[in-house]
Write a structure and sequence with these properties.
By secondary structure, the chain is an alpha/beta fold. Helices cover 44% and strands 14% of the residues. It is built from ten helices and nine strands. It has helices spanning 75-100, 112-117, 155-158, 176-180, 186-195, 199-208, 217-226, 242-287, 292-303, 307-315, and strands at residues 2-5, 16-19, 46-54, 57-68, 128-134, 167-169, 215-216, 235-236, 239-240. Strand 3 and strand 4 form a beta hairpin. The radius of gyration is 32 Å and the shape is elongated. The chain starts with a strand and ends with a helix.
């Protein structure tokens, strides 16, 4: 479970909102989607009911999260569709509740429009906030608003066209002060992604961060996946010691290095012996006055050499 601090105003306090990473589609979307007449077929990566505090007031919202490993160049449209579907669902649920509880009386209903829609003049819906978490290490170069996607530049016309903005969280652009605003394991996830392009900084960050000694299992799995570290995750009561995992990886790399060194020595000896055999073959065929073309053909066939390699070896003798 990774947790995200709820967004608040300048003077507001915040309550944290749980963002589950388990089962979310964090992998690159490769599955082909087919068009369906029903927009309800679309699904978010995550949807949560959230309470956000501004001063002493609590505001309730629907918080949606989209996890992106790659830049999506139609993200404004995609998120807008998700939000619109959620608003439509709220209206439908309120209307169904009104009809189920027979709220359409002469005292409550002002006009036929309320009866036909099922939505009363006094009914309200919750705002929907969609956050896009971009886990890629390359800068996001896609549009962040509908206006950036339009093929028009007429400002007078654009005044009549609604816009929609993407609320993007991109670890690579966050400052240290920004990271301090996250009080849960999402901070470690985002910082690891930022440092993943620099092996030394990444190692220093993980080994020198006390919070990495007892990291949530789901957060550790996210870090391992999106940063491509390749650690062997060993949990203890749902917690993972990432510092020990790094040390284990280093020890394994050193052992592999020693084995590779021995293997390279064996391979080097094999390569040297093969080169000597080829040289001896060329010398023998020359002494036998075998034509050059025949020698080259024999070298290519016997030693699996290219024509260029055979020519080079022949001309150096």
């Amino acid at each position: 479970m990774v947790t995200l601090p709820a967004a608040t105003g300048e003077h507001g306090s915040s309550r944290e909102v749980d963002i589950s990473t388990e089962g979310s589609r964090m992998k690159k979307r490769t599955k082909k989607k087919t068009r369906d007449s029903s927009l309800a077929q679309k699904h978010r990566d995550l949807l949560k009911f959230a309470a956000m505090m501004q001063d002493s007031h609590v505001n309730y919202v629907i918080l949606g999260v989209e996890n992106q490993m790659e830049v999506h160049y139609a993200m404004p449209v995609r998120n807008m569709v998700y939000d619109a579907l959620q608003y439509d669902k709220q209206v439908a649920m309120i209307a169904a509740d009104n009809r189920r509880n027979k709220r359409f009386s002469s005292e409550t209903m002002r006009n036929n429009g309320e009866f036909l829609s099922g939505f009363l003049r006094t009914d309200k819906i919750l705002p929907v906030i969609t956050l896009t978490l971009y886990f890629g290490t390359e800068p996001w170069d896609g549009p962040l608003s509908l206006r950036e996607m339009y093929d028009i530049n007429d400002s007078k016309l654009l005044d009549f066209v609604p816009d929609y903005r993407v609320q993007l969280i991109q670890p690579m652009t966050l400052s240290e002060d920004d990271f301090e605003k996250f009080h849960t394991s999402l901070r470690e996830v985002l910082q690891t992604i930022k440092y993943s392009v620099d092996a030394q900084k990444l190692t220093e960050y993980i080994t020198q961060n006390e919070r990495m000694h007892r990291l949530d299992l789901s957060a550790a799995n996210v870090i391992n996946t999106v940063a491509g570290i390749g650690l062997e995750i060993k949990q203890d009561r749902g917690k993972v010691d990432m510092c020990k995992a790094i040390e284990d990886l280093k020890a394994e790399s050193r052992a592999e290095g020693r084995e590779e060194g021995r293997e390279e020595g064996r391979e080097e000896g094999h390569t040297k012996g093969r080169a000597e055999t080829i040289e001896q073959t060329v010398a023998m065929l020359r002494n036998m006055k075998i034509p050059k073309e025949t020698i080259l053909s024999q070298l290519q066939r016997t030693f699996s050499l290219s024509e260029e390699e055979a020519n080079r070896i022949y001309n150096t003798k």
